[in-house]
Amino acid sequence: MKRFLCIFITCASIGIATCAAYGQTKMPQMNYRERTLPNGMHVLSAIDKASPTVAINVWYHVGSKDDPDQRSGFAHLFEHIMFKSTKNMKAEMMDRLTEDVGGSNNAFTQDDVTVYYEVIPSNYVETLLWAEAERLSALTVDEENFKSERAVVQEEYRQSVLAPPNGRFFYVLDQKSFSVHPYKRPTIGSIEDLDAASVANVIKFHDTYYRPDNATLIVVGDFEQKQLDAWIDKYFASIPKPNLPLPRVNVTEPARTGEKRFMEYAPNVPLKGVAFTYLAPSGKSEDAAALTIADIILSQGRSSRLYQSLVYQQQLAQNANANADLREDVGLFTLTAFVANGKKPEDVEASLRAEVKKLQDTQVTAAELEKAKNQIVTSQLRQRETSLGKSQALGRAAVLLGDPNRVNTELDRLQAVTAADVQRVAKKYLTDDNRYVFYYLPESERPRTGGLNPSSNSSKGAQ
Questions:
Q1: What's the gap between Cα 192 and its chain centre?
Q2: Residue 87: DSSP 8-state
Q3: Around Cβ 163, how many Cβ atoms within 10 Å?
Q4: Nearest Cα to 122, choosing from 222, 231, 230, 225?
């Protein structure tokens, strides 16, 4: 799944000609206001009168990379607990304050952030600002809420990792692709780590990370600036900044020094899988835009290179995908393919290698480059059609890229990418020494000799 940049496969709904025109234009600038409260809370707001609605986001700069050691899934668990009771709100009251007036709310946890958001009619802005301040400052963290939400997260693990045929495959890619960085702890966590947790662990996590100086409040939509500022001051400015250090992950993932291979086994594998992972730079890197374009050229749509080669022409794979997953600290560039019935994983691996080499040896065509840029423009224009989309683009720029104005300059970076840039980053990052190879196979094919532990998911090449 793409993180932060949702690329639409076709431009059919608005016309290919229109998309091409967009590819030559600049994204309309987002005019936002920025300030910081005395307690350290970062506040961004942008007026948009297109509809009588407002999107409210609170981005907490804490994600699964900040989970305590041997307590994976904590940031995700806390996302759930934040919807429980507070001093002045009953459990699930956020649903009543939003859904009962025609709005919506949700949240998500990623490696680097946890984000809570609401979209409501503009005459309910004050109520939701109060509610967000309430659950920041007066959340009830007790045994009952902890145990109920831990059970929910564990069930999500069963549904998203254990139940789907390919759930274990994608889960293990993070686990094995990083050697020391805490990105190796998948966001959803594990049942064992969650079972080992206590309510005292949760309280400590809350006190450490859920604080105004670790939060960015973003409001986009139909409001009056003076009134909004007064409400924010009223409900958020009085929340004290704790006298506790704010820990940050300060771990450097070492460069890979040679290809490694991993054989992963699972009980229900209808189609075998093959994956390559390459360490990639941060999303802040100057190479991020070119890697994003390379991702799109390789795998977006049926005219993409991987689909045309592996799926359509050679008929080796049922599907094939690339993903430039460029996080805050260090990223992964991943290629995945599921082997067609009757075909061999080794042949799929060879074809993936050939596509990587082709990207390195020969510059992409002008048509491929233009198509990729058109897809990006289409995606970002669609995102900017709503207050929620605008608010989340602004949040990504401010929190993950470190500069809210990147919301206005990111598209320029992407449109400036040349064919030579794509070839350069392919040669720089998609190297043999930087490649880990994963096979995903049915349990019935696990070797039964050599003292292998049948409960382990990895064998050859794992360390």
A1: 24
A2: S
A3: 10
A4: 222
Considering only CA atoms, which of 81, 82, 212, 96 is closest in space to residue 148? 81
Which DSSP state fits 69?
T
User: Mind listing the pLDDT tens digit for each residue in 266-305?
Assistant: 998 999 999 999 999 999 999 999 999 999 999 999 999 9
Average pLDDT for 182-192: 93
Q: What contacts 24+ positions apart, CB below 8 Å, involve 226-234?
A: 228/45, 228/125, 229/35, 231/125, 231/126, 231/129, 232/37, 232/43, 232/129, 233/37
What is the rounded average pLDDT for all residues in the chain? Answer: 90
| DSSP state, residue 70 | T
Cβ-based neighbour number of residue 401 at 10 Å: 19
- Of 156, 142, 146, which Cα lies nearest the Cα of 191? 156
Model pTM greater than 0.85? Answer: yes
Is the model's pLDDT at 24 over the cut of 90? Answer: no
42-47/33-36 β-pairing: antiparallel
Rounded Cα distance between 169 and 369, Å, is 31
Mean pLDDT, residues 314-324 taken together? 97
Structure tokens that stand for 324 in this block: 């430039």
